[in-house]
């Protein structure tokens, strides 16, 4: 149960003044549902404004505060913006420009003939200066003038900076005083402010120590939760599985295992003979050959007379796995079944019977295989494909299915750096497939200047004319989602003029049925060119697609480029990847693209990605999606995680875990960061 001290923080955002159904939606979109979320909605950056006497003193692009007197309101004609013309002290005219519903505010805030203090960014509009959606409009007496440094928050449609600032202020006023959870010596040495002060300071200005402490808290919570899980796992009883090799012997593989595969199988076998349940991660790039490793592990279970299950993230992948495994298992006589949410009636009943009486040795499926209605005779091994989509918590809930705790093997195709492995999986054991099966054709990767666009399009035309397929990838960054979608649509329109019906478009804002239809046309070979934003990163497998063009490649992270490029080079034909680069390329950008050209080693690219991005990161920019954190940046993770991890260990091993005085504080920390599954672990055990 959540400690009472946290009640104020976990109250819904609706309890803040001014939050009704209308604001609820934009707040939800940012993931801000509780007071805690608002307090942790840290500024992306700060603006420092300069106060100027008149517009001559300001330059275009600058953030200023200036006194202006409205002279005329020009209502919007049709779809145009609403403009208020205003004059400074020496007669310069500036347009205060509002789009959409904001024009109602403009009418109220800017009466003609009355001087106002305006804060905003000066832009050029034709011959005139303009300020689009001023951040503040106030009467002269207000204190805006002295608040020259202010936070800039990420917004969603329907929110403004002043609104979110107001909510943050209210949330900060409700912060309780929480006991200190950081190890006392570590806390002293770091000279960090308390938790509450840190949150307040982090909203006020670029306060390094405060930001650092908040990131550390999150890392500590995560490490601690993972250690609790690990400790719990050690106390559980599993089954020692000893395989005699009789089934594995019967496999008729057309190849021999690579060194990395053989080593991984040996590591897995070493875990499975122990009574402590295995918790192992198998990491290997797409195509590294994880399936056969999983198969061997499942056969060990079968040799020991037990059952094994393979969990896939989607129905399609489950089917694919089932087909592959069924064929490979044929010479062994092992019974394998497929179970997905789609299976109903008789067929389903007979599979359920088979799992219960043990006549089915292995099952492949989506999470349907762990529903309450599914019971196993003796489930001893669970293999999870694409671990990152499930999360540690769910995995552990699943593993209660067997009579005793089954061994768990998680597989992921995302080669992540060692530090991030620690962050996501804690001290889970790791096997790495860092060696590709022989005979892979390397993907010919070239960096091409954007100016040579016409040549690239000609190349695509020749490629398609030769009967092959291609991807055309446009960048997609969260901050300018709409612009990026527009760019992708424009590109699609242009290519359609040339290639007609052979082109299809897929992006994240497309309705699911349209998206599926487009993918289907491409996968079946009807369409030859797929224009896409980064949605194709996961789950597409079209071996006949052997060319990939990536526009503005410098805007992607290395790991992301690598994942994208992995979509080609899947058939026997030679594949090409063209990285188009803009003409302004930073040093880092140049280095990135050069690396892409030189190597196809996913682990190396992941490490370099972290190094290159980590260093250049701006205050507060998070790379969402590739870490389980909302506060800590990549740079902070790299630097602070080892310390936080040690700190968590000290708590577990020396300071009595969650039972001592520090433990009470740590319990609060776990709830604060939604790592309470760590707490539940203890209770369950
Ligand atoms: P992953 O799941 O890691 O992406 P797969 O298990 O699907 O990769 O294997 C990719 C391909 O490589 C499959 O066609 C598989 O038969 C083949 N393969 C796996 N191991 C070897 C090996 N040691 N030698 C040659 N080919 C292999
Ligand atoms: Mg696979």
UniProtKB/TrEMBL annotation:
The family database entries (PROSITE patterns) matched by this protein are listed as:
HELICASE_ATP_BIND_1 (PS51192), HELICASE_CTER (PS51194)
Any idea where the Helicase ATP-binding domain is?
A: 271-433
Keywords attached to this Swiss-Prot or TrEMBL record, sorted alphabetically, are: ATP-binding, DNA damage, DNA repair, DNA-binding, Helicase, Hydrolase, Nucleotide-binding
One biological process term from GO is: DNA repair
Helicase C-terminal domain: which residues? 455-611
What one GO molecular function would you report for this record?
A: DNA helicase activity
Q: Does the keyword DNA repair apply?
A: yes
Q: NCBIfam families in the record, alphabetically? A: PRK10917.1-2 (NF008164), PRK10917.2-2 (NF008168)
Query: What name does the UniProt record give this protein?
Result: Probable DNA 3'-5' helicase RecG
Which species is the source of this protein?
Pontixanthobacter gangjinensis
